[in-house]
């Protein structure tokens, strides 16, 4: 199906999210949509899939003008969107979610649906237990489930809004192969991303948006420098690798045994020093989060000890970890990090209250404004967090990290961030390291781990490697280890 969007305009109050954007996507192709944070990519795709209505402009499918009043209508026309943050029902099972929205709903033939789920999951190499509750899945697994659901619904235009952020390198390879296959079968695939290498690897054509406007359209062979210039309106220099000197041990993990219903980490030993940045690499769900949560005081270890700055905190409550200067920034920003419905000002007041009993809202607003400026958040003090673009939600989370901190535990701090914003975030994190904070960072971006971390710990199915000096690692070796080879 050929998709045409013509002269689309969309504003949210004073924010002009899209101005005169046109896009044509041919059937049988993978079309990239590239742009910096807040460029309007998600808004454009929400309009195409029926989640939002444009203020002006039209949409044509195979030359026929269409107007969708809801995503369900979009889906009936064969347009499905895989969102950046999972849009599922966490309290229900994988199978229930898979069947959700299907004509017949939950009364549908469950056995048939179960079979379809298994077949699709096998085709992609995804390992999803149909009876698991969705809130026990990782972000990546939830994305996988949603992708399978859309395919099962028979979409002809598949929109993927940054689909690779939560999944492992081998899963990405499989996903890309599947997307190519879907394109060969005649589907139109729209691939929203910040990552230039993904555009190069996958896309037959790419449209670049900048600040709500069309910046250009490019076909291979791509020049990364040209794409960056289209995205940001100027070249963006890459930083040199930096060696931050290390201080005293901050985090000392001894023979830690910790687990949940599906995974168990055995005898983990790790010391992180002041100023050190340790990267945790592995497929989503390989145990990184267990270690992070144990070190944040959110889950109790079964055995072993956790010491922070010499104090034994094993088995102590989360509040004791907070008091010791341990801060945890989770991956799931809209469920655990931010509170939908609350504004930016309200979020900052929760973390930095300006009064004991009464809040001076005038001052609160001014403080929020200051942080918005400092962290380059595209939003206003009164903006509710769910109205921010994904990248700006991430910046907000970072702006909410209290100072000083002894130990920062960050999951995917640059997930969903464009090149320039990622550099900016890492600058902030390095600044913390230089001030003596110890950092432990989970990321699926191996290149970024290699670039910024002193040492890297690799996880595979609950196995945990010794910390490896990042300078002695190659991207290739790291990729193999993550896939369970060469241990
Ligand atoms: N519901 C909303 N209410 C108010 N403003 C909004 C809303 N949705 C989006 N915006 C604003 O519109 C602009 C474009 O946002 P959009 O999410 O489309 O960007 P994006 O290119 O997808 O960015 P990212 O890569 O960070 O997700 C941003 O300035 C954003 O804050």
UniProtKB/TrEMBL annotation:
Residues 3-236, 251-486 form the ABC transporter domain. SMART domains: AAA. Keywords: ATP-binding, Nucleotide-binding. The keyword ATP-binding applies. Gene3D superfamilies: P-loop containing nucleotide triphosphate hydrolases. It holds the Pfam family ABC_tran. This is Nucleoside ABC transporter ATP-binding protein. It comes from Thermoflexus hugenholtzii JAD2.
């Amino acid at each position: 199906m050929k998709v045409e969007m013509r002269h689309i305009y969309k504003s949210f109050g004073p924010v002009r999210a899209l101005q005169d954007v046109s896009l044509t996507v041919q059937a049988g192709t993978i079309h990239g949509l590239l742009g910096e944070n807040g460029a309007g990519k998600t808004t454009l795709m929400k309009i195409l899939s029926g989640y939002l209505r444009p203020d002006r402009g039209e949409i044509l499918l195979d030359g026929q003008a269409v107007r969708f009043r809801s995503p369900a209508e979009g889906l009936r026309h064969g347009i499905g969107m895989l969102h950046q943050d999972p849009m599922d029902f966490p309290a229900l099972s994988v199978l229930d979610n898979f069947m959700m929205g299907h004509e017949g709903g939950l009364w549908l033939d469950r056995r048939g649906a179960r079979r379809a789920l298994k077949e699709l999951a096998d085709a992609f190499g995804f390992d999803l237990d149909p009876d698991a509750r969705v809130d026990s899945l990782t972000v990546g697994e939830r994305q996988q489930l949603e992708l399978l659901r859309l395919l099962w619904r028979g979409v002809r235009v598949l929109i993927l809004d940054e689909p690779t952020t939560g999944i492992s390198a081998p899963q990405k390879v499989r996903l890309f192969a599947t997307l190519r296959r879907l394109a060969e079968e005649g589907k139109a695939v729209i691939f929203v991303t910040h990552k230039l290498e993904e555009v190069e690897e996958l896309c037959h054509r790419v449209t670049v948006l900048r600040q709500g406007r069309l910046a250009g359209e490019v076909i291979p062979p791509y020049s990364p420098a040209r794409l960056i210039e289209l995205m940001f309106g100027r070249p963006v220099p890459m930083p040199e690798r930096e060696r931050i000197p290390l201080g005293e041990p901050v985090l000392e993990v001894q023979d830690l045994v910790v687990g949940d219903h599906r995974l168990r980490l055995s005898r983990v030993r790790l010391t992180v020093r002041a100023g050190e940045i340790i990267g945790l690499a592995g497929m989503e769900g390989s145990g990184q989060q267990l270690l992070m949560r144990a070190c944040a005081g959110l889950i109790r270890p079964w055995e072993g000890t956790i010491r922070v700055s010499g104090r034994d905190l094993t088995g102590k409550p989360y509040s004791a970890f907070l008091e010791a200067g341990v801060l945890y920034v989770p991956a799931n920003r809209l469920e655990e990090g931010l509170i939908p419905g609350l504004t930016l000002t309200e979020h900052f007041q929760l973390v930095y209250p300006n009064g004991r009993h009464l809040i001076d809202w005038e001052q609160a607003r001014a403080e929020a404004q200051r942080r918005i400026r400092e962290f380059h958040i595209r939003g206003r003090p009164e903006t509710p967090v769910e109205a921010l673009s994904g990248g700006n939600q991430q910046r907000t989370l970072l702006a909410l990290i209290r100072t000083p901190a002894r130990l920062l535990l960050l999951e995917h701090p640059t997930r969903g961030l464009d090149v320039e914003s990622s550099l900016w975030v890492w600058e902030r994190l390095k600044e913390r390291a230089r001030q003596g904070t110890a950092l432990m960072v989970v990321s699926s971006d191996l290149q970024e781990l290699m670039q910024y971390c002193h040492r890297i710990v690799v996880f595979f199915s609950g196995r945990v490697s010794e910390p490896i000096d990042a300078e002695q690692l190659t991207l290739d070796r790291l990729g193999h280890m993550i896939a369970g080879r060469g241990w």
